[in-house]
Design a protein that fits this description.
By secondary structure, the chain is α/β, with parallel strands linked by helices. The chain contains nine helices and ten strands. The strands form two sheets. It has a six-stranded mixed beta sheet, with helices on both faces. The chain has a four-stranded antiparallel beta sheet with strand order 2-1-4-5, covered by helices on one side. Helix 5 packs parallel to helix 6. The protein is globular and about 50 Å long.
Amino acid sequence: MYLKIENISKKYGQVEVLKGVSLTLPVNNTISILGKSGCGKSTLLKIIAGLEKENTGNIFLNNIDISNIKPSERNIVYLFQEALLFPHLNVFENIAFGLRIRKISKEVIKEKVNIILQQLGLEKEALKMPDQISGGQKQRVAFGRALIINPPLLLLDEPFSSLDVETRATMQQLYKSIAATYNITALFVTHDLKESLIMGDKIAYMENGSLTVYNNKKEFIDDIKTGVAGEINFWNAL
C-alpha cells in the first residue's frame, strides 16, 4: 500500500483524541473520512502532515517510515477549509509559488502554470488578486498551487465546507476530474454524508477517535452508525 498508518494514538492531557487508528490506501486513490466535528479527523491529518506528533504508531508513505521526518521534508500538502492564498500575489503567482521556491526556470513555470490555469478554468483570473475572485475560485487556486508541485499525498480538511451548495457541487466534480488527471493520492475529511460518498474511492468513519475503514460503499451504507440508512429512509418516507 502507498500510505500505511499503523496504530496511531494521540492524547491532549487526559483526553484521548485518537485511539489506535490504522488504515491503508493504494496509490492514486482518495479515501473519504466521515465524522462529526471534534471526532479526531483533523488531528489525524495534522499528524500525517507532521504538524502534530502522535503518542504511538507509525506512518509509512511509499514504504518509507515518515513518522519522525520534519513536516517540510515530507512534501505532503495540507489544504484547509480556507484557501489561505498569499494576499500580495496574483492568481498566477500564487499557483507558481511552489515552483519558484524550487528554483524552476521561468519558461517551465509559465508553461506549467498556464496548463493548470486552463484545467481549472482560471485563465481569465490569472492577473487578479485574491480579493478580486470568488470563494470557489480561491479554492481552485489553492488546488492549483498544491497540484503543480506534484505532492506524493494530498490532505483535504473539509475544503468545500464554506462554499454554497452549487459551487460545492462544482468543486466536487472538478476534484474528481483533477484527481484522475494527476493521479492524486489523498485523504478527504468531511462531515457531509453525501460528499463522503461522492469523493471517496474508499470510505472510513471516525467516531470518538476510533476509525472504521470499509471494504466497499455498500458496507458503509449498511452500517447503522454512519447514518446513511436513516437518511435514505427519511427521504423515501417523504
